[in-house]
Specification:
It contains four helices and seven strands, in the order βααβββββαβα. With 145 residues, it is α+β, with helices and mostly antiparallel strands. It has a domain of 79 residues: RNA-binding S4 domain (Structural Genomics Hypothetical 15.5 Kd Protein In mrcA-pckA Intergenic Region, Chain A, Roll). A hairpin with a 2-residue loop joins strand 5 and strand 6. It is elongated. It starts with 17 loop residues before the first strand and ends in a 14-residue tail after the last helix. The mean pLDDT is 84.
């Protein structure tokens, strides 16, 4: 009978801390590990309010704030993982505390031109932009509109 190698019978102990760059990548805040490391180096990841270097460790209960391409994310560490897993499994390891984005103001103002009037002139286009709230810089020659 073959004997197993030493330590094969006991499972690996659960980690007590994980590198912050590996953790934010594993819970899918960043798409690649190198992007997570670069974000840490650039100061876009904070652990408990302090800027985190890539090798800084996170523990259960820490609060991580990350500035991602999709916006700022605030998450609390509830579990430690080092490998990237499926999204439902990754969500079990953090509590998302990101506030909802403010509601966007929907200002739809339709400008109707008479049929057959052709393309708007420069003056008409500037008036339309003003009505829509996207006024450009006002020049003295626009004052007569």
């Amino acid at each position: 009978m073959r004997r197993p190698y030493p330590g094969a019978m006991s499972p690996a102990p659960a980690p007590t801390s994980v590198r912050v760059d590996a953790w934010v990548w594993a819970i899918r805040l960043y798409s690649t590990r190198s992007a997570a490391t670069a974000a840490c180096k650039a100061g876009h990841v904070k652990v408990n309010g302090a800027t985190a270097k890539p090798a800084q460790t996170v523990k259960v209960g820490d609060l991580v704030r990350a500035y991602t391409p999709g916006g700022e994310r605030i998450v609390a560490v509830t579990g430690l993982i080092t490998k990237r897993t499926s999204a439902p499994l990754a969500q079990q390891n953090y509590d998302d505390r990101t506030p909802p984005p403010p509601p966007k103001e929907e200002r739809v103002l339709e400008v109707q031109r008479e049929r057959g009037a052709g393309r708007p002139t420069k003056r008409d286009r500037r008036l339309i932009e003003r009505w829509r709230g996207r006024e450009q810089s006002i020049r003295p020659f626009d004052a007569e509109d």
